[in-house]
Amino acid sequence: MAPSFYLSLLLSLMLTILFISPAHSQYTLSEKVLNDICSKHKHSPVCLKLLKSYPITPLAHVIGLTKISINQAAVAANKTIELMALLKSKTMVPSYAAQYEICHEKYVNIIDLTEAAKKALKAGDYEKVFVAAARILTYNADCSDELGSPDSVPLQEMNKKVYNYHFKTLLRVSNSLTKIG
User: Fold this and answer.
1) E-state strands within the chain
2) Cα 71–chain centre separation
3) pTM of the shown model
4) 31, 87, 115, 133: which could join 171 in a potential S-S bond, CB 3.0 to 4.6 Å?
5) Residue 108 and residue 77: Cα distance in Å, rounded?
């Protein structure tokens, strides 16, 4: 028999085992799992949209979805840092610049926490991932507390958006992750 036949047979056998394996069904995402994750989210439709925005989401599992959420949180945090830099460069008021600098420090901590979450996820320490997600929300709220100037309205809006959409979604997904580990 041809070697390609054996290769096809082996591949078919591996896929069959993968699809009937109980471990696979435990981790595979379904519409129900996504709805469960986002159902308690204040912005449930946005949560679902974010989680479904990656083409691999239907093929992912909760661990993969957590990785996606961590990456989305990191991207959102970096974009917020870029906005802070822009606003700081345009302001002439030292107290406003100080607000942006304090928020910048908070967001550097957020970036560090996304990196810690990635490492914890890779190590299988799902509780640490969840704790990192919760701390991200705290740093974001700390930044919000600092913002009070009229010049900071764009940053206030972005800070609120990343909190509601990206960081809360990461918290919900990482909470689901702790239930399987």
Assistant:
1) none
2) 6
3) 0.73
4) 133
5) 8
